[in-house]
Amino acid sequence: MENPYLPKIAKIINVKQETPIVKTFTLKLEEEFHFKPGQFVELSVFGVGEAPFGLSSSLYTTDKFEVSVMKAGKLTEALHSKKTGDYVGIRGPYGNGYPVEKWVGKNITIVGGGIGLSPLRSLILYLINEKEKYKNIWLLYGAKTPHDLVYKEELAQWRDSLNVNVSVDVSDENWVGNVGVVTILFDIVKIPPSENISVVCGPPIMMKFVVRNLTKIGFTSENIYLSLERMMKCGIGKCGHCNIGKYYVCQDGPVFTYEQVKDIPSPF
Ligand SMILES: Cc1cc2nc3c(=O)[nH]c(=O)nc-3n(C[C@H](O)[C@H](O)[C@H](O)COP(=O)(O)OP(=O)(O)OC[C@H]3O[C@@H](n4cnc5c(N)ncnc54)[C@H](O)[C@@H]3O)c2cc1C
Ligand code: FES
């Protein structure tokens, strides 16, 4: 039987500096790589450790894939020191991913905060490709400062297909857009709640306030989808590290409806 803990070797074929503390790594395995938007991989830096990262690239590209990584501690710092041509380990893809087929015919409202746009980018690339299956698509994206916005050039390109709205908590002398936490965008953009699915990913405090706003404007808890983060080890439902309520985030998630988790203490 194949050892599920044994990583496959992936070559780093490109590294892009997105912000002072976020890099996007393009990785290539020997074989093709297939995944669903919203899934994640366990990435290992040899001699350092392993951590989960959401897949941020398009599912239609199968000869390579991307993860965007924010420097947070030991492993992510070690990963940031890697260059094109270096190797890392990959297990996965893991997790459930977004139930995009269930959303056909609906409006979609995507709300991202900071590096939380990473798994949402994979979803956005899918939705752009399958645009005729869905109605209107809104993206509300917030970051701390203009320097902390990820995928800057793509945000501009996505305007051709989606209603893109961006805000920063603190502006600088060159910023001409919205200023304030991402939830201020709910006052600027009128989002109709009917036939509308909301997909949220970002820091816990941001998710809490976004859910509050979505509920206030009439989204039901079944129509709010959240990507949850928990400390993970195995990534495959064996170790129990990522347990919340009756769920393992690695296997039952990381995508949950708010309905599934709203009665769990501190779900975000
Ligand atoms: C399903 C999933 C998908 C993820 N996707 C991404 C992604 O696309 N890009 C990205 O940059 N990060 C992502 N993360 C978070 C990433 O796994 C952590 O930042 C990473 O494990 C930190 O490792 P480290 O050794 O560098 O830092 P550590 O030394 O382990 O930690 C540094 C700090 O971050 C905190 N921390 C570590 N892991 C987590 C976590 N899972 N949730 C909250 N706080 C944490 C620690 O408490 C500590 O304060 C994801 C996490 C999960 C569970
Ligand atoms: S990470 Fe081990 S059970 Fe989820």
Shape descriptor reads: globular
CATH architecture of the largest domain: 3-Layer(aba) Sandwich
The stretches of 5 or more residues where confidence is low (pLDDT under 50) are: none
The residue fraction in helices comes out at 10-25%
Please count the helical segments: 7
Largest sheet, spatial ordering of strands:
10-9-8-7-11-12-15
The CATH class name of the largest domain reads Alpha Beta
* Mean residue pLDDT: 96
Lay out the secondary structure.
Blueprint (H helix, E strand, L loop, with lengths): L7 E12 L2 E7 L11 E6 L3 E6 L10 E6 L3 H7 L6 E8 L12 E7 L3 H13 L7 E7 L8 H7 L4 E6 L9 E2 L5 H4 L7 E6 L2 H13 L7 E4 L15 E2 L2 E2 H4 L2 E3 H4 L7
Parallel strand pairs: 7-8, 7-11, 8-9, 9-10, 11-12
Antiparallel strand pairs: 1-2, 1-6, 2-5, 3-4, 3-6, 12-15, 13-14
The protein binds flavin-adenine dinucleotide (FAD) and FE2/S2 (inorganic) cluster.
Flavin-adenine dinucleotide (FAD) binds next to strand 4, strand 5 and helix 1.
